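Crash report, auto-generated. Payload:
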Amino acid sequence: MRDVAIVSVAQTDHKRAARETNEVEMVQPIIQRALEGAGATISDIGFTCSGSSDYLAGQAFSFVMTLDAVGAWPPISESHVEMDGAWALYEAWLKIQAGHADTALVYGYSKASPGDLPMVLTRQLDPYYSGPLWPDAVAMAGLQARSMLDSGRITAEEMAETAHRNRQNALNNPHAQLKGSPSVDALLAEDYLSNPLRKHDCPPISDGGCAIVLAAGDKAREWAERPAWLKGIDHRVDSHNFGARDIAEAPSIAIAAEKAGASGGFDIAEVHAPFSHQEKIVTEALGLSGDVKVNPSGGALAANPVMGAGLIRLGEVANRIMAGEADRGVAHATSGQLMQQNLVAVLEGDR
Amino acid sequence: MPTDVWSQPQPSVPARAEGTEEVQRIRTHAKIVYDYTPGIAPTIFLRGLAEKKILGARYEGSDDVYVPSRGMDPVLGKATDETVEVGPKATITSFCVVHIGFGENAPPTPFVSALILPDGAAVSLYGTILGIPHDKVRIGMRVEPVWLPDDQLTTSFENITHWEPIDEPDVPAEQLKGHM
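Recovered output after restart:
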């Protein structure tokens, strides 16, 4: 295996609606900053991969237009996933492992604001049984939370505490969209948005994205003072048939974690749990001990640009390792409804 | 070539229960409404059209003016912050003869749909060529836009109803290299 590291990270200041800019105008500044952070230009990059969705943009082949932000001439080696950018990073990591590239630019983004996001996300469902019912994403997450509550796997208090802690953490995150939270008691006094979910249990709808530069070996040491080495990375998928799995769990997380070598001690964990109850599904599947700092960025409850929020988790862990604030961290990304697809990565800095 | 490559294989389906009907297709309602915003650079282009101006844009210091700009110089990956008016005179860089028209405003067939390079621009726009028999249209031919009446102008590319030839010598194909 080749040593591959995250050497540069940039993300947008996430907001409810980036109305003035189109996708390419929104994404270009972070691509530029990520490259500059590595001291690189696009001609130094061996492979480019993005994660986004035409359904969010409301435009066919929208990712091709966004390539205008990269500077794709002379022709570059490029690919795209219709998934969170964390999976684009996985593809780039594979490309580097295969020896087809030594460096990569990865980005994931969306402008969810032009559409009705909870309804747009129903298009991720199978087109025969679930999709035609148009179950919005909040209602779907509500089923999952209800299943956890009724089986005694979580309490409404725990959910509110998770929301509170994440958004308080976000006070220190300049990119976050929702910063700060009323007290847990105040949250629990609120009405339901979609029983058993209250507003605080749900992620904000966000426009934004993240760009990351990867490099192998000596190039990584050249481009970053302290590269965040990807010690392990793996992704797994659970059945898309909700009736065929216990939706209160996501077994694919534990499998991905095992394959990625995500055991032992961590200084930091960034988990991609858009709904408050989902954080517990992830932290339990990862077997995180109580002293691990979970989501110091505020996580997806503070900013949730679809197709970018998972990649941001890797970026947040990498940033802290590169800054010397942490030595070892685990990042988790999810894609699809009810945490159907899960990716786990272990990052370490040289000591 | 094997003969079965181009034909649809018969699906394999389990025997169906007695007294039930085979479901061969389902129809499901699907509609998503988007509130689309064009972005900063396309907004400048569209507002220009309302004043019968063709506004392109370039990265500061670059020779290449993109029209319409989506905000980036796609070769450099840099923002096109400088607005530059191009045209209205233009050159046909490529065309095709359309025999099957569609859309409410499609002209009678056959007609010519062309790529049109406004003077000063690096890339071509799409447009319809009228005012000349379709078999007389040539690459390099000089044209200019025909606009809707002033009181019907909106922030739409449809403000240009079509393009018509002008009495100027053709541009040699050599000079159109890199713009076709």
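Post-recovery validation: The radius of gyration of chain B is 24 Å.
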